[in-house]
Amino acid sequence: MLLPTPANRFQSAADALTALTVKKSPPAVSNQSNLPKNLPAPSTPAPGIPAPSISKPNTPGLVKRNQPSFSLTEVLGSAAFVGFEGSLLYIGLTSLLSLSGVSLGILGMVMGGIVFALSRRIIEKADLIIFAGITAGIVAFVPALHSSLVVPSIFMIAAISGAGAIAITAFFRLVYQLLSRFL
Asked: Are 157 and 164 a contacting pair, CB within 8 Å?
C-alpha cells in the first residue's frame, strides 16, 4: 500500500487479503507460486535504509468516541448561558446562605454540572432558554433569593455577566485559533 508507484500496489482488497493470509501461514518453503500473479515480488530494503515497520495502536480496549465539534454559535451561546446562570445562582446563593464557603462550594458544583452537561450535549438549544427563564423567574420573584436587589438590576447583572462570558470566550477562541495556525 505504501509503494510509490500505483502499479506496484495491491489492485484490489482480495489481493491484499490474500497477501496477508500468505504472510500469516506457518513458515513453510517459500516459493513465488503462492503469491498472486499481479503482486510485486517482495523486496528487501537497501542496506542503509531501515525497513518500515507496521505498529499496532497501543490502546487495547479503549475506544475513543469522536464527538462532533461545537460550532461558534453553540460555543458563544453556551458561554452566555453559563455567565447568565452563574450570576443568577451567585445572587441567589449568597442572598440565601450569605457569602460563605458553603455557598461558593454549591455554586462551583452546580456550575461544574452545567458545564459538563453542555460539553456532553445533554442540554442544548431550547433547553438553555428554558432553564435560564426558570432560574431568572425563581431568583426574581422569591424575595429571599435576591435580598436588597431590585428585579431590573438582577436582570441587568445577569445580562452583563452573560455578555462578559461571551467576550472572554470569543477572546480565548481567537487566541486558540491564532496559536493553532502558527504552531
From this structure: no
Phi, psi dihedrals of residue 49, rounded to the nearest 5° = -110, 125
Look up cell 452583563; give the residue: 160
What is the spatial distance between Cα 21 and Cα 10, in angstroms, rounded to a whole number? 14
Per-domain boundaries in the chain:
74-182
Instruction: Give the pLDDT confidence of 22-34 residue by residue, as tens digits.
Output: 765 555 554 554 5
Assessment of whether the complete model's pTM goes beyond 0.85: no
End-to-end CA separation in angstroms for the chain: 31
Half-sphere exposure of 134 (CA within 13 A, CB side): 6
